[in-house]
Amino acid sequence: MSSLTEKDRPVVQLLLNTGTCPRCILRFCCVGSQTLYRHPYKELMKDLKEFLKNNQEKEDTVCFDVADPPCKRIRLEHTEGPDDVNHSAELQQIPLVNDENTATENSAVKVCNVCLGILQEFCEADFVKKVCQKVNSADYQFTSFVFSVSLPPQLSVREHAAWLLVKQEMGNLGLSLAKDDIVQLKEAYKWIIHPQLSEELSVPADGKVLFEVSVVFAHPETDKECHFLATACPDCFKPAKNKQSVFTRMAVIKALEKIKEEDFLKHFPCPPSSPKNLCDALEIQCNNGAVFVAGRYNKYARNLPQTPWIIDGERKLESSVEELISEHLMAEFKADSFNFSSSGREDVDVRTLGNGRPFAIELVNPRRIHFTAEKMKGLQQTINNSSDKIQVRDLQLVTREAIGRMKEGEEEKTKTYSALIWTDKAIQKEDIAFLDDIKELKLDQKTPLRVLHRRPLAVRCRIIHTMKSEYIDEHHFRLHLKTQAGTYIKEFVHGDFGRTKPNIGSLLNRTADILELDVESVDVDWPPTL
């Protein structure tokens, strides 16, 4: 039985007298029954007054007949440790009113001095409906939800002040109250809100799902009430990017852990004063966890970059592989944005043939998430019909974890290329035949000049596993290569002014250059073939 006992009476009376709401009183009495917090506000207030009215002298259990077991405990301490300082001189003395009418008058406060209304107005059906209207108007697909709440930082300050007050009262009874024993405000709020949201949205609450409903509360006096902490503990409050105020919840909690009780009591009223304003529900937001789509793409154009080609703010080419694929996914999934990744990349003038290059797209905050294999097949066809520059295959939904397989051991994977090569001096078949016999050729490749602006200067060891030459005429031949992933093929052909050694030019003892390059296969066994 989760309940209040006779030892809770002074605490209940003290907090009611100072303007604390019934649900916060239950928190400070360490009541762990979720069901109890969901009782109507007026009913809870009535029950607390009845509890005070019962003039029992025995330590028997009183009122609140609910089944949930308590999750918090008050610890009995008969000795006062060296760290237990009696701050009765600093604490404002609150008369413990025995007359029930006076207690009733004092407890009729508009806004709770601890939660600033979070466990009052914002637990009512009207606010829940407001949240659900926002969720429904956002037009998301979801089958369950997780609820999160952001609270004004000064609630931690007010709770600290109330705790010091209650701790002193408990000390007078030979009891102690650890701060961790108090039921957390967020926890109590979720106990109350979850069932209401579930009923209104007709889906269950589930802490493990990706669809999040969040409420951000704010209060106009946050900075004013927290300012003394910045003076007492300046090292806890440092300006941070994307933060409007230095008084973040974590910074305030850190300062409260650091500040001495006597210093706190000099600067903040204890009990906390009755607030002038209720909290504001600043934002009600919805967010769906990212959806991941993977597949393989072929690129048939020699004037198409993999990603948008923009230099100094100026677009060089009108489209890209990334955009041709993602624009259709963005439209179908109704996502806010996307992130494109792939197993390597080809240059703008290089085609990708064969079974294509593996890619994955993260779709951020999608409104639509339910896609069958048949729908994905239709989406693949839509992409393929939209352009003759690319084609995709094996389009499918994957998990975030599965994308890691695309990158795993990328350097150890092999890739197959076809290069059209020109030489300055005439060649015969026999001049290039020896290339076919070279196996596991080791290269030292200094970062190519053409990518030095975006890649660090380094010498990378790469391997050409096999080569097969195909004679065309006196100045042209085609070379089929199987190489270690990450090998710069163009530089292996022309040498990059000696930055790649050996190279085709040095092997043939003449100037060589590359005219065309195709990727014929990327040997990454992912995603699964459909």
From TrEMBL:
PANTHER family, sorted: TRNA PSEUDOURIDINE SYNTHASE PUS10 (PTHR21568:SF0)
Entry's EC annotation: 5.4.99.25
Name of the gene: Pus10
Pus10-like C-terminal domain: residues covered: 292-523
GO BP: any one term: tRNA pseudouridine synthesis
Molecular function per GO: metal ion binding; RNA binding; tRNA pseudouridine(55) synthase activity
InterPro entries xref list: PsdUridine_synth_cat_dom_sf, Pus10-like, Pus10-like_C, Pus10_N_euk
One Pfam family of this chain: Pus10_N_euk
Annotated protein name in UniProt: tRNA pseudouridine synthase Pus10
Family: Belongs to the pseudouridine synthase Pus10 family.
Catalysed reactions, as listed in the record: uridine(54) in tRNA = pseudouridine(54) in tRNA; uridine(55) in tRNA = pseudouridine(55) in tRNA
Cellular location(s): Cytoplasm; Mitochondrion; Nucleus
UniProt entry keywords in alphabetical sequence: Coiled coil, Cytoplasm, Isomerase, Metal-binding, Mitochondrion, Nucleus, tRNA processing, Zinc
SUPFAM superfamilies with a match to the protein in the record: Pseudouridine synthase
Main localization (coarse): cytoplasm
Occurrences of domain Pus10 N-terminal eukaryotes (ranges): 112-286
GO cellular component, as recorded: mitochondrion; nucleus
